[in-house]
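If your schedule permits, I should be very grateful for your opinion on a structural question. Kindly check, if you would, that the fold set down in the tokens agrees with what the sequence suggests. Thank you for your consideration; the sequence and its tokens are set out here:
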Amino acid sequence: MASSNAPVVPRRPRWAGPRAAVLFVGGMLFDTLALVNVPGAVILPATDADPVSLTDLGTGLFLLVITLWVSVFWRRRLPLLSLIAGGVLALIGISYLLLLIGAIACVRRWPTRMMLVGGSAAGAVGLFALREATTAWGAALPWLFASDAGSQYEPVWIAASFIWAAVSLAAAAGVVSVSRTRARAERSDQRAASEHRRADALNEQMVRQAERERIARDMHDALAHRLSVVSLHAGALETASGGGGDTAEMARTVREQARAALQDMRGLVGELRSGPAQPASAPATMRAIGALLADLRAAGVPLTTYVVIESAERASAMLDGAVYRIVQEALTNAIKHAPSAPLDLFLHADPVSGVRIRVVNPLRPGGSVVPGGGNGLLGIRERAGALDGEVWAGAHEGSFIVDVTLPWQERG
């Protein structure tokens, strides 16, 4: 969570560049007129018909004014530059306009230093007004508004210097207040947008959870009964065959596999419902692949296997489960499309080279005797894609090949 004391840099408006140009031109013209404040910088006319002329000192100050006001173009990126430039003009006695602009930029950039910057600027403006009221600096106001530079010591112009300073400080404070209000409004808008996105994400999560629960109910209602019936009939067939012979062995295998499938389904239903899942008979881990292959061999599936798994305990849970499920689905797919055909499984997994899974079965004319939904290979691709792996599946030289490569992921 961001601290409320963090610097807040207001968003740069589209018209910030033109506004800087306006400030530059207006401020330069204002300070050119304010050169009258500096004794010896301007030769004032004796009559209204005579022109105003700059002395050598005035010409040098005019060039300095132009140079220092250039800093207004970088007041957002380098606010201290404008503040220092304005301080130089105020110290010389020309005006404190650039000083106030620099102070405003510094307060916007570093709001936690508002008291320091504001107090310093107010003190500098107050000293400037005091100097105008008590010294030869300060002829600009009476000359501009009364065409009489010699009347600067009259009470009305002394009071005008302090009034002008107070009005300038109040205007600067108003600009800072409006800027801070706008920054708070922008932060409120950002927080509101963030909360809105969070609410949308929670709503989407609730919708997904409701869909997962619906799928879990459908799976349980549709499959649990059928698997229970298969297991029951397989048990009855095993009993009827007298418990011996090939028929009894096949019935026993069907019953055990149906029971294992029922337990797996219950575990998946529990995961979908985000509740405590019942432990499956064959957990989704690389260490259970040996039991999976043993069950298939016991069921009479001709298997030729090459399985090397190193440091399985170091694999991430996602990789560990994905390897098991991919091998399981690839073998199921091969058995379904090539029943009683010899199958080849190659599995090599280690932290250095990653995981390579390759299942090969011969192509049989006539296709599968078991109907398929086309989701097996899709599931393999999805699991591999979630791990940034690669999948190649297709026919090659009379065989159907599923070849999967997965990068290794360490357990966190």
